[in-house]
Amino acid sequence: MKNILAVLLISCFCLNFISCTATTNTAETGTYFFREVNGTWGWHQEGDDDTEGKYVGEIKKGKPHGQGTYTHYSGPRSSVNQLSMLIPGMPTSIIFAITIWQLLNQSSLEQLSARYEGNWKRGEKHGQGTYFFPNKDRYEGKWQKGKQQGQGTYFFLNGDKYEGKWEGGIKHGQGIYFFSDGDTFVGQWKDGKPHGKGLYTYPSGEKYIGEWKDGKKQLQGPLILSN
After folding, report:
1. Rounded to two decimals, what is the model's pTM?
2. Which contacts (CB < 8 Å, 24+ apart) does range 203-211 have?
């Protein structure tokens, strides 16, 4: 009988311990807005979806921390209400027409948003994440303290692509740039421009090896003809 009681007590203790551990490890989630209050920008629980950046995801001590998504619109999404407030007495027919236009162009309005999906640390983008720019460019890679840092890939709307190192939000280090017309550049980058040794390959297969400085080709180097 004593053995049975001992087993039951141990089982209860283990279950309580597991329950407490699961509760402790559960990340807190919520919605926060990045806005200016009294001249200072910061994260707040109250805000406007249409005009302020909105974060939804894991939080810690009142700031994004963990996995989450941040969306910010470059312009108000609900312009009808704002127009009616700015212009008292606006005819109902005009407000109705604007409303219909917004409904028909909902997808184009949504395209004006910037969005980040990924990891956060103490209120800043930090770790692996993807940023969708309003102009349809996209960056996938590493972040540190809110800026691109480390290995990442930038996709341009025109079809160009850069794969390589970043530092402080700009191309810096070894990288490859793929042009939409078929050209490629492999080499060193500094402050966002080719700088140092590089290999430029043309769509025909010909290759140029030389030096670049501040994005400009320097002394002529060997031109390797395609086979």
Report:
1. 0.72
2. none
Rounded to whole angstroms, the Cα distance separating 163 from 184 reads 11
> Residue 211 pairs with which residues in a beta bridge?
197
Helix (H) or strand (E) holding 165: strand 161-167
* Six-digit token string for 223: 């031109």
Helix (H/G/I), strand (E/B), else coil: 145: coil
Residue 227 neighbours by CB under 8 Å, 6+ apart: 205
Second-level CATH architecture of 135-227: Single Sheet (2.20)
Contact 70, 55 (CB under 8 A): yes
Mind listing the pLDDT tens digit for each residue in 164-180?
Answer: 999 999 999 999 999 99
- As a whole number of angstroms, the distance between CA 72 and CA 50 comes to 8
Q: Which residues contact 43 (CB under 8 A, 6 or more apart)?
A: 32, 33, 34, 55, 62, 63, 64, 123
